[in-house]
Task: structure prediction
Amino acid sequence: MKRVLFVLWILIAVVFTATDFFIEDAMLTNSAQPKLGGTLRLALPSTPESFLLYGSLDSSAYSVIMGPLMSPLVEYHPITNEIRPAIAKSWTVSSDGKQVWFYIRDAYWSDGKPITADDVIFTMQYFVMNKYARGNSVDRFTIPDEKGVNKPVTWTKINNKVVRADLPSPYGAFLTVLTAVYIYPKHKLEPLIDKNDLASVNKLWLTNTPPSEIVVNGPYKLSQVIVDQKIVLEKNPYFWKKDKYGNQLPYFDKLEYLIIKDAEIRLAKFIAGEIDYTAVSASDYPRLKQIEVAGNAPYLLFASKPIGSTPSPVHIAFNFDVANPKLRELFRKTEFREAMEYALNRERIIEEIYNGLAIPGGGLVLPTNKAFYNPKVEQLMRSFDLKKAASILDSLGLVDKNKDGLRDFPDGTTFEFTILVQNQPKDYQQIAYVFSEELKKIGVKTNLQILDSSVVGQMFGAGNFECGIRAFGNQPDPQLRKAIWQPGQQLYYWHYSTMDKNTNPPSPVFSEMFDWEKRIWDIFEKAQIEMNQKKRKTLYDEWQELYYKYLPVIFVARQMNFFGCHKSIGNVVQSKEGLPTFTIWTTFRK
Result:
């Protein structure tokens, strides 16, 4: 009877079932079948302190665990950034958006044991939702119910291959946060946990654990650890991905990480051909590119369209709540902020500051994030035009009354404002200089205030600035940046009066919001509980358009990302969108 009821409930659920993913579609080459075998060589700055993701806060550990050793329930597509199946071959969302069934594929641990629903529930219980685990994700899986009471997401085993997540309320970013949940083996780890001391999980699978004891579900398994020298992984014979030719992935037999603490030495070893793939700094890229163009390099360099959260896209903000009443009235006018965007010479900034290696704007959502990016914002950005900027300022009554070359307020006092900028990174200051120089050409007086970054952060946090230059990193899902871009939130620093700081958590003050801000607030509230990803994108498309139309902040530029790859590595290509594709399971030695 229970089985019948379960089937009936599935039939009335919203039809949102992802296709079963088994053939790896990141294979972009049109050449013959790739070669199998060999060793892929990468680098790490330090030896991982643990091979348990949730027991560590170590970036080197993350590099080895997240992808090479372990797989999540769902994952990002390496090209489109869309969410696709992983350990879960598909999922179904209920009609009310509060239950999600995950159907686990026929996959196995590296010791040959099947991956089951028990492993998912074990991972959630003892690691993800364990507040004593150093790398827990309790906050991401604790959400308000319909009454606003924070409650955890709970998990129920339906059978060995089906697990259900019960959400306190619909949660649009649920699949996004699941991409960072890597599933661990219950049969190996549960016996090692002290149930009376849940902090004991932080002592599991440390670097001194014999590699044979570490059971994984990723493309590679641990083979050797030589502290401060190298980490060696070998092909996992039970990995579940195959290519279009029927080859089991990965192609390489081994993945070797060299431990190299010094960044200059890492770069030297890459140039010498001892490392196959690496990120390259913006400062090193021009020099290395010259060597490549001259034909004297064993590598290829890629200047990629921006991906990931760093470096952050720089923006200019005018304080809607500034103490000076004349500036406050002016800064709140959309027309004034339009004039400021017309006065922003993005092309000059990109050429002079970023050596041409940046894109204009780059805020909110990156163009490479196909899951959420709205290309319409490219047409909404106002191109540099000082005549238009000057004309708007004239219409606002900001004209040179005393013929001293500077614009004045209608009462005859000089129109001027101070630009607050931190001393690092240097491009922030350089942007401020260029912006000031262009404004000076149309009679706008600015004063630069360059301070230590910690002091600047405190001043922004207190709303103690007139105009400022700042940057926030991108995230793959806009919901993860709600605290920045939704009016009334903690980091909406250019209009703090939309937030009541006397409540905990702060509550929105709608009377202080413009109509477009109220709409943005509403968009985030709706998108947060919308489980249909297409509908979420429609909402976030509108949000992006509103930002570029009304300019609560003005996005300047986002530096590109740079990568280098040894010429002997196959299946590393750059897409027509400018994105290099490299995965440890689809590359091979030519």
